[in-house]
Design goal:
Largest sheet: none
Radius of gyration: 19 Å
Order of helices and strands: HHHHHHH
Helix content: over 70%
Distance between the termini: 13 Å
Shape: elongated
Number of domains: 1
Number of helices: 7
Strand content: under 5%
Number of strands: 0
Structural class: mainly alpha
C-alpha cells in the first residue's frame, strides 16, 4: 500500500500547489490518481478490489457534487475527491470527506476573520435565522467584494484531510516509522 499512497500523496500535493496558485486543478492529476488507484486496487494482492475502489470513487464524487452544484467549490475539487476515493475505498473516503469539510470550514472562518468580514457574515446569518422564526426564509448571498463571497482553494484542505486519514494511525506507531526509514 505504501507505493499507491506515495503516488496519491505526490499527486494531491501537486494539486494543492496548482489550486493555491491558479485556483484550478488540472484533470490530468485526477485522472492519474483514478487510473493508479483502480489499477492498484484491482491488480495488486494488497488492493481493495474493484467494488470498494469504484464505490469509493462514486461516493467521493457524490458527496462533493452538491458543493459544486451550489457553487461553493469547483468541479476539480469534486473530481479530486473522487480520485482519492478510488485509492482509499469506500470507508476511508467517508472520513476524508468529513475531515475535508471540517478543515475547509475552519480555513474559511479564519479567512473571513482575517479579511474583516465576520460581522457581515454574522449579520447575514442572524437575518436568516430570524426569518426562519417569523416564517420568511431569505438568504442574502455575499457579493464577490466580501470575504465570504470569494472562492478559496480547497485542494490544500483536501490534502491535509487525506494525509490525516492515511497517516495519522501510523504516525503514532514507531514500528511503522522505523520500517519507513529502512525502506
Amino acid at each position: 500500500m505504501i507505493i499507491i499512497y506515495l503516488i496519491l500523496s505526490v499527486c494531491i500535493l501537486i494539486a494543492s500547489i496548482y489550486d493555491a496558485t491558479t485556483k484550478k486543478i488540472p484533470n490530468w492529476i485526477s485522472l492519474t490518481i483514478i487510473v493508479s488507484g483502480l489499477s492498484w486496487n484491482i491488480f495488486s494482492a494488497e488492493g481493495l478490489g474493484l467494488r470498494d475502489s469504484s464505490s469509493g470513487l462514486i461516493v467521493g464524487l457524490l458527496l462533493m457534487l452538491p458543493g459544486y452544484i451550489f457553487g461553493s467549490m469547483g468541479a476539480g475539487d469534486a473530481k479530486l475527491m473522487a480520485a482519492i476515493g478510488s485509492v482509499v475505498g469506500f470507508t476511508k473516503v467517508l472520513d476524508v470527506v468529513l475531515y475535508s469539510y471540517m478543515v475547509m470550514f475552519v480555513v474559511a472562518i479564519i479567512f473571513i476573520i482575517a479579511r474583516g468580514g465576520l460581522f457581515k457574515l454574522l449579520f447575514r446569518y442572524k437575518a436568516l435565522i430570524y426569518g426562519l422564526f417569523i416564517g420568511t426564509w431569505s438568504y442574502q448571498k455575499p457579493d464577490n467584494s466580501e470575504a465570504a463571497g470569494q472562492r478559496l482553494p480547497l485542494a490544500p484542505g483536501i490534502t491535509l484531510a487525506t494525509f490525516y486519514v492515511l497517516y495519522h494511525p501510523q504516525i503514532c506507531n514507531l514500528e511503522f516509522m522505523a520500517n519507513l526509514c529502512h525502506f
